[in-house]
Amino acid sequence: MTGDRDETGRVSRRVTAQMVADAAGVSRSAVSRAFTEGAYLDAEKRLKIQEVATELGYKPNALAAGLQGGRSHLVAIFVGNMRSPYDTAFVRRLVGQLNARSKWPLLIDGGGEQAESAVSEVLRYPLDALILRGGSMAEEIVTRCAKVGIPMISSGRLVMAPGVDNVCCHNAQGMRMATEELLSRGRNRFALISGPQAFFSSGRRRAGLIETLAERDMTLIGEETGDYTVEGGYDAARRLFSNARPDALLCSNDAMAIGALTAAREMGLSVPGDMSVIGFDDIQMASWPTFNLSTVRNPIDASVDRIMELLERRLETPMKPAETVYTDPVLKLRGTH
């Protein structure tokens, strides 16, 4: 007994439960019960159905089975533009933890209209939850998600909407820690390479620096904006160094800090002799001997653990009040401060 095959001998279409039922001489519902844990079915009939199913190459539709139990186990993750290695590492960890809990992620990449269109399409699927990670997301999409009753968790930016849980790093606190470290070392000419305005983290990290300097009646001597990439940091640093000579440079993420280090070396600036450089995130590249970058760790493991906890609580109690959980940054001093 085999499924329909094309001229190459390959199965040309998916084997269905009805095909198994016809081949085994049983009802369609008997096939369903044979693959449903705890469902009543004569042991001999169950064995026969499973043998026929194996011969035909039949696999139960996990999505349909999940829907019968009220869960699809599908979780959509909005990952923005994946602009930095931090985002890649974060999503890799998040996907691994979802898989370990038998949940299957649908990744949505891109920005602007492309991302909004993709999110609109994915909402047609029976999702268990939607996780927002990085980038910006149109308010109308967030509102639409909330209206259709999909549990939502926002990571890396705060979304204040009913039923939406948030996990976020104390970004301003992390930048304050870095600034105070450099002040304690006598640095007094501060500059910043900030990230895109649409990124929640960019504003909060900038605020942490500006507020800490203001408490000492100090201001920035220069500021440029990058796009959270190594290339963006390099270009921003070249522009910055053509107009100012800071002795302390803070960057809104590690990728841009690595680009700035490269630009500084090309221009003959000694780090940390002439200038201190501190990034944010603590990506794997930051610890490479080539860079040995001092930075602020934005803890991935802790953030993903909190997301998993919030997800489980939200699925257990869909109507519970929204929660916001913060993770603590850690100053990682290496060789560039």
List keywords for this structure.
single chain; 337 residues; alpha/beta; 434 Repressor (Amino-terminal Domain); Rossmann fold; 3 domains; six-stranded parallel beta sheet; four-stranded parallel beta sheet; 12 helices
CATH fourth-tier homologous superfamily of the largest domain: Response regulator
The CATH class of the largest domain: Alpha Beta
Quote the average pLDDT: 86
Low-confidence stretches: none
C-alpha termini separation? 71 Å
Tell the overall outline.
elongated
Known CATH architecture of the largest domain: 3-Layer(aba) Sandwich
Beta-strand percentage range: 15-25%
The helix tally amounts to 12
Number of strands: 12
Q: Please, how many domains?
A: 3
- Rg, nearest Å: 26 Å
SSE order in H/E notation? HHHHEHEHEHEEHEHEHEHEEHEE
CATH topology of the largest domain: Rossmann fold
